[in-house]
Design goal:
There is one protein chain. This protein has one domain: Domain of unknown function DUF5300 (Immunoglobulin-like, Sandwich), CATH 2.60.40.2890. The protein contains 1 helix and 8 strands.
């Protein structure tokens, strides 16, 4: 019985380190720092203080069901809101949002299981 408990604890520790929640990367390819960045979707909203010129920020999100990715931010004295784009759900998705030099946000989703 003790041997079974040790095996069960090892398996639980290994599984808890695995995350199948979507991984989101926001990349700033504009010529200014982005501030007050908000990444949102169905059941989640995450705020990032700032992303430097050429920088990126990675986070894990936990959508409720099907979702798009919304990105809003302040830059160059203006507020931008890209609205919800693309499609993903809770699972092994990798989402990348790139803010271009003209502050347009392009979202891409890699739906391969990770």
């Amino acid at each position: 019985m003790r041997y079974f408990s040790v095996i069960l604890a090892a398996v639980a520790a290994a599984v808890s380190g695995c995350s199948h929640s979507p991984a989101v990367t926001i990349k700033n390819r504009s010529s200014v720092t982005l501030s007050n960045v908000v990444v949102s979707g169905s059941g989640f909203s995450e705020r990032i203080d700032s992303i430097a010129i050429g920088g990126e920020h990675k986070l894990t999100v936990h959508p409720r069901g099907e979702s798009g990715l919304g990105v809003a931010f302040d830059a160059a004295g203006r507020h931008f809101d890209a609205g919800q784009q693309d499609y993903f759900e809770d699972g092994g998705y990798r989402i990348t949002a790139i803010v271009s030099t003209n502050f347009i946000v392009a979202v891409s989703v890699d739906s391969r299981s990770y």
